[in-house]
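Good day; I would like, with your permission, to put a structural problem before you. I would ask you to consider whether the tokens describe a fold that such a sequence might reasonably adopt. The full record is reproduced below for your convenience:
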Amino acid sequence: KCILTDPYPSLVGGEMVVSAAMPIFNDKGDLLYVVVIDIPLEKILAFIHKEKGDNWVHNFNRIVYAVFAGALFAIVILLFIDGVKMFFAYTIKSIDVKKMFEATILITLSLALFDLVKTLLFEEVLGDKEDHPFAIHKTMIKFLGSIVIALAIEGLMLVFKFAMIAPQKLIYAAMLLAAVTFLLIGLAYYMKNVGKEMK
């Protein structure tokens, strides 16, 4: 018959394990071999107490993530509407490059936040997580890329603005563009390392 041992410290890692042994017979009733598996005690306890204690914690986390996702989605809608209104308000009557840049920044930020909302909704609320271990990196790269684009546009706006009205402040625009460059280098390094791991 199947035998389940008492917990004992494993010789391999020293952690507490439980061994399960099952004899395998042939069609004549002769013993062929015995299958043995070591199960960590922590895994067994987690499995036993999952229905008792973990369900309410999991449901609470899902509710919290759903609330945050809803709040972020409301921000996405407001940013997108404000960006579109700003774009059409200052391009139909007369083209205002500054306002066009600002509208582009708002729409880009709304896109970045939408990717974050989508990740929270599908992975944390609905539990529809991708099996691939590097799936989260895709969302991270898209989010960081959108932030870099928005900052680069803002830096370009400051260069034009300070060049016309306050040339002595061009150093601040240059510092922002330098920070964007460092962010871009860091993002490229991150993508390179992720690509190596995926291979």
In short: The chain is about 70% helix and 10% strand. The chain has a mean pLDDT of 78. The CA atoms of residues 86 and 103 lie 6 Å apart.
